[in-house]
Design goal:
Elements: H1 2-18, H2 27-49, H3 55-86, H4 94-98, H5 113-142, H6 146-149, E1 157-172, H7 184-190, E2 207-221, E3 226-234, E4 245-246, E5 256-268, E6 274-283, E7 289-290, E8 300-310, H8 317-323, E9 333-334, E10 342-353, E11 362-375, E12 379-391, E13 419-421, E14 435-437, E15 441-455, E16 458-469, H9 474-481, E17 490-499, E18 509-518, E19 540-552, E20 555-566, E21 573-584
Antiparallel strand pairs: 1-2, 1-21, 2-3, 2-4, 3-5, 5-6, 6-8, 7-9, 8-10, 10-11, 11-12, 12-15, 13-14, 15-16, 16-17, 17-18, 18-19, 19-20, 20-21
Amino acid sequence: MKSEHKSLALLVSCALAGTPAAYGTEKNEKEELLKLRNTTLNLIELLVQQGILDKGKAEQMIHQAEQKAAAEAKAEARLEAEQSAGGSVKPEGKDAASGKGEKGTVRVTYVPDFVKDEIRAEVRKELKDEVVKEVKANAKQEKWGVPAALPDWVNRFKLFGDFMARSESQFFGGSNRPNTYFNWPAINAAGGITQLGDPYRNTTNDFNLWRLRMRLGLEAKITDELQAQIRLSTSNQYSPISTNQVMGQYGTGYQVQLDRAFLQYDYLDDKGQDWLTLWAGRMANPWFSTDNTFDPDLNFEGFSGTFRFPFGHDYNPEVIAYHVVSTAGRQQFNWGYTKPNEAYLTLGAFPLEQDTLFGASKYLWAAQGGMDYLFNRNNRFKIGVAYYDYNNTQARRDPLGSTKYDWTAPRFFTQGNSLARISNDLNSSTEPRLVGLASKFEIFDVTATYDYTGFYPHHVMLIGSYSHNFGFDQQQIYNTLGENLQPRTNAFEARFEVGEPNIQQFGDWNVWLAYKYLEADSVLDAFTDSNFHAYGGTNAKGWELAGNYAIANNTWLGLNWLSSSVISGPTYNVNTLLIDLNARF
């Protein structure tokens, strides 16, 4: 802008000085100088209107140019008077240089055409660059053309979604024996063991499935602080931890469900600090957790809130952006809703099953506190300590011949948790009609991660979690349910990952290796990873080796190999191969 002001000052001076001294010039020269003066003044006014030049400075510049022009005009008038008294005036230019003046001529301030052309070119170039830059910035910020063409509500909606096609293969161990593990979820649904032709799980016959998942969401901005979101998905109505649809359904159409529906409120202060987020409805996982505790597809119904308290060094936004990781829909690990250098507290209340007949609904009450700490720019450490208290989920034995406590049977469970008989019908001791969870679940969980970004954009991460079920009470289980069970209440996971956590651009990649260990009653088998140990669940240990590679922007291939075996009970080994094609939009 300094060079522009210099050019404008020169142009103003020439324009204002040239007009009063135009005597003796030709008519077209006078018109040219008037054009130059008016053009300069119009340009200055335009710069003031665009905010490029301050109005006060513009007026001061014009005033100074006018004063200079007046002074030069007076000086030339005096010179002309003196020379007229002497009988001749020598004009400037080549005649003056050669000394060939004529008697009675008048000296004229003359601006050569090439000088005026040069000034015009310089001003035009610099003005164009600045104005174009300013116009582009304003157009981008104000979205010129869109507000005028579309109604306001269109700008408040955002469409998003993802797609996955999967090949899933299960390879069972050669030492597995058939008819060793009952398929209890199917038995409960059928109304007893005798109601099923084959009440056992398949533990010996390999199989392959082709699956598909499609999710489409809509986010609506209600105010600057309040938004709503809904998401539709392909559906597996029997599973809250998987929305994968098995292919090969030519006889029927795919099921679709309302996967999410919630309101979200964010409180931000004047400095942009996000202090509080509240959710109500069916929402994404709000907890900092691994898939040992919650499957990545699991949604929560109820109310939750995360409170954030900033501390430590205030890094610039670019450094913070290196460490903000969004892994929704891809990774077996949930970062929660914090950014570096924040302490946090998350609280939640979630109804699992509402009961109006007996007034004994099932709930999950939960709390988690921790910190997200960034030090030396490239090192991030996050820890969360949580307590998940499941109410009214333990089975109760029916009175003889009654169905009073049938409601204590879980609507959904997989495999691994210790079970106890609920039904007390005739012959139900040998062929139970209904079973439920033998233990209470009050889970203490610690999750931590260390993220190093010295090789940015690639991350090196260590992730770990440990869970213990304080709800297991051996004596209480024996007294109320008649089951003498040994405590198997610990779970842990350790994971090492390298690469780009957010798969977005062509060539992005990551790989990870994890070891998982889940004792029978460590966590709720209904909510843990659905891919591990063939059917998900607990009472299993093993390895996971996986990776992703982006074959295009927001499109990637995934490969997972999971190898697991049972912790206690008859031999039950299984290897799982998952090959995925994913796209996000």
